[in-house]
Each structure stands twice: as structure tokens, then as C-alpha cells.
Amino acid sequence: MSNITDEISKRRTFAIISHPDAGKTTITEQMLLFGGVVREAGTVKGKKSGNFAKSDWMEIEQKRGISVTSSVLQFDFDGKRINILDTPGHEDFSEDTYRTLMAVDSAVMVIDSAKGIEPQTKKLFEIVKQRHIPVFTFFNKLDRDGRDPLELMAELEDILGIDTYPMNWPIGSGQVLQGLYNMYDNKVELYKADANGNKEIPLEADGNIADGNVLKENKIWRDALDEVELVQMAGNQLDEDAILRGELSPVFFGSALTNFGVESFLKTYLKYAPAPSAKHTVDGDAVEPESDQFSGFVFKIQANMNPQHRDRIAFVRIVSGEFQRGMDVTLGRENKKIRLSNVTQFMADSRENVETAVPGDIIGVYDTGTFQIGDTIFSGKKQIQFEDLPTFTPELFMRVSAKNVMKQKSFHKGIAQLVQEGTIQLYSAWSSGDYILGAVGQLQFEVFKFRMENEYNSEIVLEPMGHKIARWINPEQLDEKMASSRNLLVRDRFEQPLFLFENQFAERWFKDKYPKVELESKL
Ligand code: GDP
């Protein structure tokens, strides 16, 4: 690669977040279509019948009809190299989803314009906001009778607490959808071609349609103009710095299914979305992408993409320098040298061996149990350790035991490895030592059970304990008598004590009883 700076500036690495059914898959398919990766829409979901379908992991996906894995798709469009990191939208999603957001430079939020903001959008958005990730909004399904666009904009601002700026505006919707007023390019994109076969109307300098065009006389157009004037007068300025700080979301309308407004959205998005930027180390130093030293971090580990091999893939987001196949790197946590020879990249249509990759790219490193989530790898002598990936306090708990007591060995091995991988959190009851699993979503338990059986030949019994509130306690303040049936005392895998409270009342009762005891929601 001759000019790495140039290559980096072309990268756009993002995730699409949405509530299930808002249209994330459909819009992804359209994007792949523009990228020339697929020839017809429908192949993203169709991939499950291809080679990938053989993997154990995909089997779960097929059974549940949902996307469990956060897959990575790479393709080229409009002079940019795009990496889309897929995040499951299912409500039972797991920590994977959150961690994937740590590996992107921006996010696209797809919202069903008939439904507005739904719970899952909100949950994902909270992470985006916390991390100041630039976020772009796409109100989808404009071909259906949706809600008033002004109301949708207001809802974004009120419920999510982010400023908005309209990049285009719907001219009608549903039955009477005429087109999109594309303010950015000063043109109207027509939903259906006009009598002369045109799909676009260029606008006058003042943003209006030239005299003589039938649309100009249409009330729907005049209403759209009025609304645009209203939002522009009362609303925010298009402030690029505010976008990059994640404080202002550019808003687009369109219809993924009818491929309307998606291409202009993608082009505009690629212009405003940030290229890969510096990332901070635990010492607070910024590692710039252009640095000569290669570095990256593991944000996801996925098992058995190929069922013939009991291998795992560690997904590494490259932060700085150039990756070259066969290069030697150091795994910071263990100060261990590793040669990166067996590495894949995730082109949308195939998994190919990769020769080089640059910051912003995701590479998949074959792993035989070396990596943990959050690991930093780097070339050269200077130690780099990126900031920890956030861990999420589990809310759901289950007791776990081996079905066959004679098979304790495979049971313990499986648990140890899957926990190390970050699949799930492990605790043990303080007095009995019973194993307890903690997760963010129900799906994590299912994946865990499936993998224990398939990879470690260990059938397990899961006993639901329901929702709990996990609170860590300073070991010096701990008295075992504080434990009760409403606040179970357990230890985490670092031997730190915590209580699992039945509910908020139990926690409050505890606080009243032991006012001096400090409880932490995270270790
Ligand atoms: P995901 O769960 O967010 O990935 O949603 P999908 O992309 O699978 O879409 C959910 C459903 O909405 C599917 O039946 C799509 O065909 C439909 N859909 C997606 N985009 C549009 C759209 O723009 N208009 C209409 N009418 N339906 C859409």
C-alpha cells in the first residue's frame, strides 16, 4: 500500500443500530447492491444457505431466525472502503452488541417512521451517546403512511436527547409519497419518474421548483417547503464539529425496501461520517492511525465459524499502522509474541485471506485460545494497551451444573474457556460454591448451552434465578451475616464479593440496614 494516509481517509467503519423490523437488513442489502457485492437484494439473509450455514453458530441463527453474530461486511462505494459491523437487533441481544459499538467510528440509526423510537433503539443509542459516537438517523418505510416528520424529529430530540438536522425532507408519504426534497444537493428525488422519465428535478437557487413543473402546484410540495422552513428556522445549524462530537444527528428520510433515498443517503453519510481516528491508551496517550506502529484490539471472539475445525476467530479492529500478513505482534497482556499468519478479512461475499489492512479495517485472527476480549496487539517495541472495553453488569442469572456428574472435567474446561472469551459472566455462591451465570440477555444463556454441548460435549442444566441487581461490596466491609435469601452473596471470577439483590426494595432495605456499607454497580 503506497499511501497509508490516503487509505485511512477512505475508510468508513460503522454499525447500523435499530429495533427489530425497522429495516436494518433491507438497508444493508441495498448498500451491498451499490457496492456491487450482491446482484440482487435478498442475499444477506440468503447467505445462511451458503457455506456459512454449515457453522454451528449459524444453526442457532437459523433456528431462531435472528442474527446472533455481529458479522462484518466490507465493500467499496463512491471512492470509500466501507466496513459495516452488524449488530443484532433482537431484544435478547448480548454484550457482543455493545462491544461491537466500541469498534466503530460512527453509527447509523434506522427507525421505522410509522413507529418512531422503539425500546431497542433507545437502549443501543444510550451506548452511542455515552461514547460520543457520531450518529446519523434514517427514518425508513416512507412508502408507508407514517407519522408526521416534524413529530418524528421532535421525538428524536426529546426521547434521545440529541440535536437533529434534516438533510432531506419527505414530500408526502405512503399513498401520496411524491419524493424527497434533498436540501443537501438542492434537488427533488422523485419517488416515481415523471412523464418525461426523469427521476430528479434540479431546484432553483432559492430551493424552489422552476415554474411550469406540475409538482410546484401540488399542495404536498408546498407543505414540505413550509415544514422545511419551519425546522430550519427553529432548528439547529449543520455543524460538522457537533456531528463529530455525537451531539448533532443528521436526519434522512427514505424507503429501504423500494430503494428510495438510500443511495443519496449513503453518499452524503460517507461525506460527513468520520474516517478512523486516534484511540486512547490506559495511560491517556493518543495512538494516531497514521503511526508506523501497528496496533489493534480484540472486540469480539467467535467460535467455530467452520465446524470442521474447533477454532475461534478473534475480531481485531486495527487502530494504527499497517497490517501485513505474517507480521509479528505482541499480545500486551501476556507480553507474548504472536505471528499473524492465519488472518481473514470479511468481504461481503467471501472470507478471503488478507494480505494487508489499515486502520478502520477489521481482521479476523484465528485463535486457539490465546485471546481475550479487550486484548491489545501491537508491533514494534513500544508497549500499547488500549483502554478497557466496558463490561456490562449482568441482569439475568442462572445456576449452572453438569447434567452428568461423571463429566466434570469437560464441564469445567468449557466454562473456563467460554468465560475467558467473554461469552458470559461467571460467579460462585459464597458458601456452597455453586456456579452461577450472569448475562445481559437471555440469548447469551442459549448460546452458552449450545456451545457447551457442541464444543465441549458437556450437557448442562440451567436453573433460572430471574432478574437480579448485582452490587459489589468492599471486601473489608463484608460480613457474611449480611447475606439473606433476598440478597445472595456470591464471588466473581476475580474472587471479589458481590450481592445479587432480588429487586430494588431488597437493595434499599439493605442500604437502610447497613448505611455505612458502600455498594458499587460495577467492579
Ligand atoms: P431488521 O429486523 O431491522 O433487519 O428489518 P428487515 O430489514 O428484515 O425488515 C423488516 C420488514 O420490514 C421486512 O418485511 C421488510 O421487507 C420490511 N421493510 C424494510 N424496509 C421497508 C420499507 O422501506 N418499506 C416497507 N414498506 N417495508 C420495509
From TrEMBL:
InterPro entries tied to this protein = EF-G-like_DII, EFG_III/V, G_TR_CS, P-loop_NTPase, PrfC, RF3_C, RF3_dom_3_sf, RF3_GTP-bd
Compartments, as annotated in UniProt: Cytoplasm
- Domain Tr-type G: residue ranges: 9-277
UniProt binding sites for GTP: 18-25, 86-90, 140-143
The protein's matches in Pfam families, at most eight in alphabetical order, are given as: EF-G_D2 (PF22042), GTP_EFTU (PF00009), RF3_C (PF16658)
GO MF annotations, alphabetized: GTP binding; GTPase activity; translation release factor activity, codon nonspecific; translation release factor activity, codon specific
| Organism domain of life | Bacteria
Example of a GO biological process term: regulation of translational termination
Please give the GO cellular component terms listed in this UniProt entry: cytosol
Record keywords: GTP-binding included? Answer: yes
Gene3D superfamilies hit by this protein: P-loop containing nucleotide triphosphate hydrolases, Peptide chain release factor 3, domain III, Translation factors
Q: Please describe what this protein does.
A: Increases the formation of ribosomal termination complexes and stimulates activities of RF-1 and RF-2. It binds guanine nucleotides and has strong preference for UGA stop codons. It may interact directly with the ribosome. The stimulation of RF-1 and RF-2 is significantly reduced by GTP and GDP, but not by GMP.
User: Which family is it part of?
Assistant: Belongs to the TRAFAC class translation factor GTPase superfamily. Classic translation factor GTPase family. PrfC subfamily.
Q: What is this protein called?
A: Peptide chain release factor 3
Which species does this protein come from? Periweissella cryptocerci
Q: Which gene encodes it?
A: prfC
